[in-house]
């Protein structure tokens, strides 16, 4: 005895077969749509990550430039305050007179100037001997 399954060809089986084909087709279309939109989403995510990475590098470079510029600005501000102090001193007659007397050995009338060696110079001469 041979156990063979014979397929019935009636309206119910035809309807069931067509329904299976339709569901398989819908499933295939659904998978394709999911893959298509998923790949678009993945592409957008990759582009956004690249943009974020490049922006981060640009921000780090700008931050280092800002730090360097800030250091230069602080140096220039210190130099500016030193120059302002020097201008105030040069406008003071007593300071100019003191500089002229010490640097250029200018004297008032009847005043004698003696040039004495510095203590540091004496210490260096003794150390050399």
From TrEMBL:
The keyword Cell cycle appears for this protein: yes
Pfam families: DivIC
UniProt xrefs under InterPro entries: DivIC, FtsL/DivIC
Record key words, sorted: Cell cycle, Cell division, Membrane, Transmembrane, Transmembrane helix
TM region(s), chain numbering: 35-53
Highest taxon, organism lineage: Bacteria
Example GO BP: cell division
Cleavable signal peptide: none
Claim: Cell cycle is one of the keywords in the record: yes
Name of this chain's protein: Cell division protein DivIC
